[in-house]
């Protein structure tokens, strides 16, 4: 599985959405399932699949599908 | 004198600061509060859609000061549930955010203040409110169930005084909100700090929001509370590495904190010189019944501690006798001035007097150790705590049954298991329950089985191996 696929899967599984909805407008709280609980589950999933440990600021800054990729870039995950 | 009647004594001391930067002294807060309630007669029922804003706090205080009885509801409650409650309780007024007024479609706006409006409904009260009744809270968060807890002025006052005493709250404290105001634990933090003349930082932001931490640092917050799920988040956010020099006290309630996490936080707080309080309570006891003294947090992290000042615990066996020996489990019974008057299921219940007489059967099974500390070991009632929300398993079963789904609900805190017959589609069940409870779908696991195990009377056998 490519990093892109892993990344998309994390979102579709955590938020119960279709991959076609994932774009720059897919941001924190844009769907009811991306609440604080959903956010926790997304971070936990991403840390698991990419085998990384994110810093506090990166976790709370992780605000959108698009900018999230840049954040993961800091941990050596490339798309 | 009850604390909310003497708030003006704190005069120019800061009372609240909200997210938008609005800051108010106690004097100003009292002015605003009393303005909101000025057009309403005392002994009137008012619904309040609460959030952590100054308008919500001022509405609550204004009503309670004038002996108007508020029902605090979540402002995330959907319209259908809200209308259902309005039908059952027929409040004369509703205090709610302006952006909810349009969808409401009943009554007319008679005044507004800040981002809230006061709506007069078309109802005339055809029932009376008992003279001791001060406040109504829901028992199950946002499901819209009409079952309410009736709290008296005495209840609120004695619990706030007691909490102030054992936590050592002073006017120098600056708490930040982490829980909804309509939730008994969230409200108890607001009440106990107003009681001490402290400054409360109000925000609706979650711990996952950068803005929350900016507020916390900017206002040099000294304390906050959390449900078990809050502590999961704090761990995930690397609380261990955070620099929080002003934080003095953190508290935990709203369900059992898993012992591994409890031990970890007890250790971290010890290193950081933060006092960590594990506590226990229920809406039926206004909020708080016990606390573990913070110096015992490291060694007794799985205990709920001792009864709060003025309260008393004991254990009873199945025949109703007191258990005197230690380490022997029984139902936890509490006695104190904070035990609520009882439940209401209908507006005519609001005239009823105190039915508990200061004694609450908690429904939790506990044991006491040789030092007199209490430990919860199980539950008599069928409730789970999902991310801090108390969910009645029977109510979920009923709801799904109404929709034609045969099911049995069990599980543990933060993970409800819903057993369904293979005829029912699992994803639909999950979505339905998540929408009904307003709780994230990851809290529910749907397990298909051939048949729901029942006895000859049709009662579900929760001890049957197929659903254990």
In short:
The complex is a heterodimer of chains A (79) and B (468). With 79 residues, chain A is mostly helical. In chain A, 54% of the residues lie in helices and 0% in strands.
Describe it for me?
The complex is a heterodimer of chains A (79) and B (468). Chain A is mostly helical and 79 residues long. Chain A is globular. Helix content of chain A is 54%, strand content 0%. Chain A has helices at 3-15, 36-50, 56-61, 65-73. Chain A has four helices and no strands. Chain A has a single domain, classed as Orthogonal Bundle (Non-ribosomal Peptide Synthetase Peptidyl Carrier Protein, Chain A), CATH 1.10.1200.10. Chain B has 468 residues and is α/β, with parallel strands linked by helices. Chain B folds into two domains: 3-376, 3-Layer(aba) Sandwich (Rossmann fold), CATH 3.40.50; 383-467, GMP Synthetase, Chain A, domain 3 (2-Layer Sandwich), CATH 3.30.300.30. Chain B contains eleven helices and 25 strands. Chain B has helices at 26-37, 54-65, 79-89, 98-104, 153-167, 184-195, 210-218, 228-236, 259-272, 393-402, 426-437, and strands at 14-18, 23-25, 45-50, 69-74, 93-97, 108-113, 116-120, 133-138, 148-152, 200-202, 223-226, 249-252, 275-281, 288-291, 306-307, 312-316, 330-335, 342-344, 359-368, 374-379, 383-386, 389-392, 407-412, 415-421, 444-449. In chain B, the strands form six sheets. Chain B has an eight-stranded mixed beta sheet. A five-stranded mixed beta sheet of chain B has the order 11-12-13-14-15, sandwiched between helices. A four-stranded antiparallel beta sheet of chain B has the order 16-17-19-20, with no helix packed on it. In chain B, strand 11, helix 8 (228-236) and strand 12 (249-252) form a beta-alpha-beta unit. In chain B, helix 1 packs across helix 2 and helix 5 crosses helix 6. Chain B is globular and about 60 Å long. The relative contact order of chain B is 0.10. The mean pLDDT of chain B is 93.
């Amino acid at each position: 599985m490519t990093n892109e696929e892993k990344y998309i899967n994390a979102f579709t599984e955590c938020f119960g959405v279709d991959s076609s909805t994932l774009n720059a407008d897919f941001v924190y709280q844009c769907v009811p399932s991306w609440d604080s609980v959903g956010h926790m589950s997304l971070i936990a999933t991403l840390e698991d699949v990419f085998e990384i440990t994110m810093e506090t600021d990166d976790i709370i800054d992780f605000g959108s599908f698009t900018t999230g990729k840049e954040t993961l870039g800091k941990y050596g995950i490339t798309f | 004198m009850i604390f909310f009647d003497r708030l003006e004594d704190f005069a120019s001391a800061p009372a609240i600061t909200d997210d938008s930067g609005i800051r108010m002294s106690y004097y100003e807060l009292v002015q605003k509060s009393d303005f909101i309630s000025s057009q309403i007669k005392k002994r009137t029922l008012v619904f309040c859609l609460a959030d952590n804003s100054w308008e919500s706090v001022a509405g609550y205080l204004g009503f309670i000061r004038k002996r108007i009885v508020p029902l605090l509801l979540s402002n995330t409650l959907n319209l259908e549930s809200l209308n259902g409650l309005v039908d059952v309780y027929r409040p004369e007024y509703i205090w709610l955010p302006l952006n909810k007024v349009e969808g409401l479609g009943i009554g007319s706006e008679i005044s507004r203040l800040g981002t809230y409006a006061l709506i007069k409904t078309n109802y005339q009260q055809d029932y009376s409110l008992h003279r001791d009744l001060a406040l109504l809270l829901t028992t199950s968060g946002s499901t819209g169930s009409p079952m309410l807890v009736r709290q008296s002025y005495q209840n609120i006052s004695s619990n706030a005084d007691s909490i102030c005493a054992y936590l050592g709250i002073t006017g120098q404290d600056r708490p930040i909100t982490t829980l909804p105001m309509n939730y008994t634990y969230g409200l108890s933090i607001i009440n106990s700090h107003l009681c001490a003349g402290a400054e409360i930082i109000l925000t609706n932001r979650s711990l996952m929001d950068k803005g929350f931490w900016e507020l916390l640092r900017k206002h040099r917050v000294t304390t906050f509370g959390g449900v078990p799920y809050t502590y999961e988040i704090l761990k995930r956010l690397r609380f261990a590495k955070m620099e929080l020099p002003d934080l003095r006290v953190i508290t935990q309630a709203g369900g059992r904190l898993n012992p591994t996490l409890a031990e970890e936080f007890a250790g971290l707080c010890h290193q950081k010189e933060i006092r960590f309080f594990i506590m226990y309570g229920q809406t039926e006891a206004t909020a708080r019944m016990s606390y573990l003294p913070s110096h015992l947090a490291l060694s007794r992290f799985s205990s709920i501690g001792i009864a709060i000042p003025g309260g008393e615990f004991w254990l009873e066996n199945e025949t109703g006798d007191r258990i005197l020996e230690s380490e022997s489990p029984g139902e936890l019974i509490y006695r104190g001035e904070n035990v609520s008057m009882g439940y209401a299921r209908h507006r005519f219940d609001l005239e009823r007097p105190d039915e508990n007489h200061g004694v609450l059967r908690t429904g939790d099974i506990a044991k006491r150790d040789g030092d007199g500390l209490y430990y919860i070991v199980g539950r008599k009632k069928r409730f789970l705590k999902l991310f801090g929300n108390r969910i009645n398993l029977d109510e979920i079963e009923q709801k799904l049954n109404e929709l034609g789904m045969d099911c049995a609900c069990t599980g543990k805190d933060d993970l409800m298991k819903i057993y369904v017959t293979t005829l029912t589609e699992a994803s639909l069940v999950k979505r339905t329950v998540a929408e009904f409870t307003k709780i994230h779908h990851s809290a529910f696991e749907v397990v298909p089985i051939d048949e729901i195990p029942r006895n000859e009377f049709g009662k579900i056998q929760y001890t049957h191996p197929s659903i254990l």
